[in-house]
Batch of 2 targets.
Target 1
Amino acid sequence: MLPYKTIPVFLEKIWGGTRLLNYYKNIEGKIGESIEFDGREHGIPLIIKLIDACDDLSIQVHPDEQTAVMFKDGTCGKDEFWVVLDCYEDSYIYWGFNGIYDKSRIYEATLDGSIVNMLNKVNVSVGDCIYIPSGTVHALGKGVMVYELQQSSDVTYRLYDWDRLDKGKKRELHIEKAIESIKPHNFISLSDITNIYEMESKGHNLITIGNYEYFKAKYVCLKNGESIIQACDEVRIITAIYGHGFLDFKDNRMLLKKGDTVVLPEASDECVSIIGDGMLRYIEATV
């Protein structure tokens, strides 16, 4: 089987925007998510998205496997990993609690919105890499656009949605399920955030940026004419986030440009060659 480009699925969101046009996506309306890869149809437990948050997302949490099964909301949890692709100078995320709170206090705070004052509000920069394990309360802030790698689950429990209206109605909250899913002792440290461009500036062009239980991620930067030979020893999903280059497999050459996601199927004893043309930056995801 040859490497192939995926066909993205676009989802309009109340908080979406138009920046996916910068990634050569043919979109109309306020698109919040471009689902680049959904591995469930191939038996690969990964989903990859480009997310454009032009407004604050809801304060939310994802369950782990045990909690999802208990609520009959699937059979796996939902850990996530973000790489910031674009943001405003003062952009931020909400990421874990800023203190130790019991669940009764958290529940009360969801009712009046004061839960936002209990969360770490963290300024972010382009290139920041952020891991969000299941059970961590979080939200993308206004202006943040990310590459997202996640487990293959669609389950999100909203705690607070800014009292905004969607088509004249408030969106559904899932407070009881969310409270049960929260792991208030998940430790969050700013030192856990790494930045791909800071590492690149120090001469690192092939970087492991995520090595977690359910998925792994690498960042690669290839300058003009530089190449990397990649073994096809497992399924790899490559998403170009800057520039363009080429992917050679046997006698086939594929153009790889910003916004493309390419699946490299497992093929024992085979390899691909990826070549920078000008400059190519991409993220590689594996299980």
Target 2
Amino acid sequence: MKIIILLTLLTVKLVFADVMIVTSIKPLSDIAKEIGKDKVKTDYIIPPNINYHLYEYKPQDLKKIYKADLFVFVGSGEPSIDNIAKSLKPEQRLKVIDIKGMYLLKEEDHDEVHPAVWLDPENAKVIANEIANFLIKKDPKNKPYYEKNLQDFIKQCNDIINYGKDKFSKLKNKYFVSYHYEFPYFVNRFGLVYLAEIEMGHGREPTPKHILEVIQKMRKYGVKAIFTSKQFYNPKTVKVVLDQTGAKVFFLDSMGENGSYIQMMKFNIDEVYKGLSIQ
């Protein structure tokens, strides 16, 4: 009986010995999952189907963060995130925009770093490498396992970059228009041209003058697609642009609702290609 109890306690201890990584948003969790796989538990705070800029943290969110071995967050765009993270020990937090080697862009309407860094697979590789370094330090006996997973993920990122660049190289029209200024990292990485966005900054409705400028640009360059995510979209605002240009709306996935990180990126590449192929 004592042996059974001892084995049970040992099993429970091993279960709870797993490294726990919590992230602010799902794409970061998906990257962590690629490196840790079945040796690491991952979770995220902000649901992927909402505007993460407006999220209000719940007590259970904070409990998750403070119990985690590592909390990974972008450090831009998530509300009050620095105030939450600063109560953690330095080794318990990873601020993505502070990682050396990250490719960063500024917001168009103010001087802050644009938060959607994960939509560039080169940045995903940098994030994955930093997470792998943490896991190797935390769980050194599984170093070969994490290193292999990292190399596998880097290869997948390289493959998806090549897939996108090859696909977009066939396009005659590479002018990209979005509802919200959401995709500059994606556009830059894949050699597209950010022509215009309809919304004038976070939550700011466009003026009639701005709408007219967007319409004129789309007509001039023959753009027949407007790209957006469900989280940043107002159909009433975009209707006049669609009516005047004959364009179609294409919904992209910026938060990993379509599966893994690589699946999300492939979905976006295919949808953008489809939209930009319209003559």
